[in-house]
Amino acid sequence: MKIYLVRHGEVNHNLYKKYSTEDEDLNETGVKQAFTLREKIKDLDFDIIISSPLMRTTHTAKIINLNNKEIIFDDRIKERNPGSLNGQSMNGTDREEYWNYYSEVKYGTSENIQGFFERVYSFLEELKSKEYKNVLIVAHSGVSKAFSGYFEGIKDGKFLKRGLKNCEIKEYEL
After folding, report:
1. What is the pLDDT, as a whole number, of residue 154?
2. What is the pLDDT of residues 131-147, one digit of tens each?
3. Contact 53, 75 (CB under 8 A)
4. 85 DSSP 8-state letter
5. pLDDT digits (tens, 9 = 90+) for 54-106
6. Which of 85, 152, 156, 165 could form an S-S bond across to 19 if both were Cys, CB 3.0 to 4.6 Å?
7. pLDDT reported for residue 72
8. 70 vs 35, 47, 49, 67, 109, CA distance in Å?
9. What would the pLDDT profile of 2-28 be if each residue is shown by its tens digit?
10. In terms of pTM, does the model score above 0.90?
């Protein structure tokens, strides 16, 4: 099965580099990014779209769904929850450490990275049992980091630079 993973278009908390648990919609740039992506993938054949249920991923999925394929939603591919970091500048944390799989540092009540990866991995393990040929998944930067760990290995545990940019797409074989 081929998996095409897409990160949603830009939202304001991306633009302002803040942690957010808000269910925020795409900003103007994010909408434009999604339409650009739609044009780029217009000939891509996929059976279904699986999306995080958050507004930014749902909106991205609807824009890029040129052939009106079924969209299903899965909570396991929601973004890593920053907990008490919500609303704070990302500059207030060591981002390398925040995305280090082996880190012992705890940032407030943020979701533990190992638990977050396990949540995403359970989604991928279940997906293996499906009969899809090609799946388009619309999710988040953190989820793309977890996909990287699943498909490419944990390696040194550093995931900060292993995530997708807004409306970037990456192909995997499951």
Report:
1. 97
2. 999 999 999 999 999 99
3. yes
4. G
5. 999 999 999 999 999 999 999 999 999 999 999 999 999 999 999 999 999 99
6. 85
7. 98
8. 19, 8, 6, 9, 35
9. 999 999 999 999 999 999 999 999 999
10. yes
The H or E element containing residue 49 is strand 48-51
Which pair of tokens denotes residue 163?
Answer: 């995530």
165, amino acid identity: K
- The helix/strand/coil state of 135 is strand
Q: Determine the 3-state secondary structure of 37 from DSSP.
A: helix
* Residues spanned by the domain of 43: 2-173
- For residues 144 and 139, give the distance between their C-alpha atoms in angstroms, rounded to a whole number: 7
Helix residue ranges, H only, 2-140:
12-15, 28-40, 55-64, 95-98, 113-127
Structure tokens at 165: 């940019």
Question: Which domain CATH number covers 105?
Answer: 3.40.50.1240
Q: Could you give the angle at the alpha carbon of 61 between the alpha carbons of 58 and 10, nearest 5°? A: 75
Q: If residue 142 lies in a helix (H) or strand (E), which one and from where to where?
A: helix 141-152
Q: Domain total for the chain?
A: 1
